[in-house]
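Input record, target 12 of the design panel.
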């Protein structure tokens, strides 16, 4: 059981106030949020048991106890799943290291999406493949091969703050998804190296990583300030790649008839045009 469990529980306790759960706030509090004793009381476990659990010294914990703690700390579905993952490291399925190769069939799907920017993300949010329109929107092919990684782009590429007008939200979502990946793969040395490098080079990443937010990447809306097409408002859907654990297909889906759809269509024409010769 690693230190992530204790850090995660402490961060979740800090955001719940006693009055939020029907308790009286007696005495001066040295730290924000619920005390460990209060979490234990509300979850129906002994104080000693909860303290040992938070310190990573507890025995194998049952689903019932984890469910009770999740209820007290008001965890959402993703946070609840993450809690189960980091609380029981021995029960994690041993997943063989992936080569992160994209199946030929998935590449054909990418290329068939001629009206929608799309790309494939792998472990650690590495960018594994993209279609022509995805490249026209984000510029994956211009990134050095070793740096085709979304957290690297968001935190280490100076142009990212202009590319993403909502940079602060994008940065927080990126770290929350990376934290979720780290919980599933605690022994991933490449991920640990990535987190270490980003922590060293980016104050923003270091602050967000310490916040222990976790979030899955399913759907949403992303704004991009494209250097040629201007502002693009792009709803997106994320689809898991069956048979390739850790890979997902991200598809931007402009609203039909919108200004963004018109601008994306222009980018599609530009991306499809043959390169000039000579």
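The sequence produced for target 12 reads:
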């Amino acid at each position: 059981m690693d230190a992530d469990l204790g850090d995660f529980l402490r961060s979740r306790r800090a955001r719940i106030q006693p009055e939020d759960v029907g308790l009286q706030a007696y005495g001066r509090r040295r730290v924000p949020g619920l005390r460990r004793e209060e979490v234990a009381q509300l979850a129906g476990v002994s104080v000693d048991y909860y303290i040992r659990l938070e310190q990573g010294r507890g025995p194998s914990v049952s689903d019932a106890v984890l469910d009770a703690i999740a209820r007290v700390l008001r965890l959402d579905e993703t946070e609840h799943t993450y809690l189960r993952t980091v609380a029981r490291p021995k029960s994690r399925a041993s997943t063989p290291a992936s080569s992160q190769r994209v199946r030929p069939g998935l590449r054909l799907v990418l290329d068939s999406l001629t009206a929608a920017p799309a790309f494939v993300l792998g472990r650690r949010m590495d960018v594994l493949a993209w279609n022509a329109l995805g490249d026209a929107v984000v510029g994956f092919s211009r990134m050095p091969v070793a740096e085709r990684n979304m957290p690297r782009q968001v935190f280490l590429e100076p142009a990212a703050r202009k590319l993403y007008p909502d940079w602060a939200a994008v940065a927080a979502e990126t770290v929350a998804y990376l934290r979720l990946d780290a919980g599933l793969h605690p022994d991933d040395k490449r991920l640990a190296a990535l987190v270490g490098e980003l922590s060293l080079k980016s104050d923003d990443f270091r602050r967000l990583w310490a916040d222990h937010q976790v979030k899955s990447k399913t759907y949403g809306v992303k704004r991009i300030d494209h250097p040629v097409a201007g502002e693009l408002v792009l709803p997106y859907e994320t689809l898991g790649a069956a048979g390739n654990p850790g890979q997902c297909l991200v598809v931007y889906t402009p609203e039909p008839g919108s200004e963004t759809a018109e601008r994306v269509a222009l980018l599609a024409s530009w991306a499809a045009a043959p390169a000039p010769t000579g």
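The first helix runs from residue 3 to 14.
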